[in-house]
Write a structure and sequence with these properties.
The chain is mostly beta strands and 314 residues long. Helices cover 11% and strands 40% of the residues. The strands form five sheets. Strands 1, 6, 16, 17, 18, 19, 20, 21, 22 and 23 form a ten-stranded antiparallel sheet that branches. A six-stranded antiparallel sheet has the order 2-3-7-14-9-12, with no helix packed on it. The protein starts with a strand and ends with a strand.
């Protein structure tokens, strides 16, 4: 089967306490040995490379497959690594205030790619807000707020609820907050600079490392808020929404009620099944599955009540 490639999720332990994500959200995963903070479902990054579960490539890493069978991806991947990541993030506590660099800064200072990301909010408590930007007008004002321990006074907040979509470009000060679960789609990077972590201590009594110099170097001042032009296409038994369409990534939300046909606009789609079950081109999929639709697939035929996020990078 070279049309649909299923991927093995990678599990990462939560730093702060919490519940076991698979038990709460019923994603059909089997690893419940420790509280999970993140699940990497699609990744070509060196810190967590996805493994193929589908024959004849079972056991291969996604990057090895890209190098050996580039046609499966339409020769649209660069540097021999898959260019996107899809993660599930389970925030049982407020996450650290952070910022991501662009490619130029990350390559020079962290030997990594820069990071643009976006979040699809799957679950959020009533009246939830996320940290999104700041109110400082100059880098000097922001640096002083950090030095004086008054950063929280200058944070901007964005109200969110289940079903919201947020684009977080490189340079945006941001953080998910308590009890939010999100699907994160990002460029292939694992570089995060921490501004602030609420003075919390880990189990060994130490505060987490901050990256104040790097954070101040790369944060946008004043904050820049992206404009997202969502496009909705209604089809027989389906709604296809283009949530964001940028050079870094295009993300689509596909929701079907029964048999539907969706046009495929790029050689590959990286996919996550958020809800439901059914078939995609006659292959059974269910909630929690991560898979790649390869260049062999020209049209997507979905049968069933299914909700899928699909992404690619130009």
């Amino acid at each position: 089967m070279k049309d649909i490639l299923f991927l093995k999720p990678l599990f990462f332990e939560k730093i702060w306490g919490g519940n076991k994500l698979p038990e709460i959200y019923n994603f059909n995963y089997t690893n419940t040995e420790f509280p999970l903070g993140e699940i990497w479902g699609v990744s070509g990054h060196k810190n967590g490379i996805s493994e193929i579960l589908t024959s004849p490539f079972e056991g291969m890493s996604i990057n090895n497959l890209i190098n050996s069978e580039p046609d499966l991806f339409g020769n649209k991947t660069a540097n021999g690594e898959f260019p996107l990541q899809i993660r599930i993030i389970d925030a049982k506590e407020d996450l650290s205030i952070q910022v991501h660099p662009d490619d130029k800064y990350a390559m020079k200072n962290s030997n990594d790619n820069g990071k643009d990301e976006c979040w699809y909010i799957m679950d959020a408590p009533e009246n939830a807000e996320i940290v999104f930007g700041h109110t400082c007008k100059s880098r000097e004002e922001l640096a002083e707020a950090v030095e004086m321990g008054r950063l929280e006074e200058h944070l901007s907040y964005l109200p969110v609820r289940s079903g919201d979509f947020i684009h977080v470009p490189a340079g945006t000060l941001h953080a998910l907050t308590r009890d939010i679960m999100a699907v994160e789609i990002a460029t292939c990077s694992d570089t995060t600079y921490r501004f602030y972590d609420y003075n919390r201590k880990t189990s060994d009594g130490k505060k987490r490392e901050l990256n104040l110099k790097e954070s101040l170097d790369v944060v946008a001042v004043p904050s820049i808020y992206p404009v997202i032009n969502t496009k909705t296409a209604y089809k027989a038994n389906a709604v296809e929404m283009t949530l964001v369409d940028e050079e870094c990534f295009t993300v689509k939300h596909i929701k079907t009620t029964k048999t539907a046909v969706i046009e495929k606009e790029f050689p590959y789609y990286a996919c996550f099944v958020m809800a439901g079950e059914g078939t995609v081109n006659t292959v059974r999929v269910k909630k929690g599955d991560f898979f790649i639709l390869t260049n062999n697939v020209k049209k997507i035929e979905i049968n069933g009540k299914v909700e899928i996020l699909a992404a690619y990078s130009k």
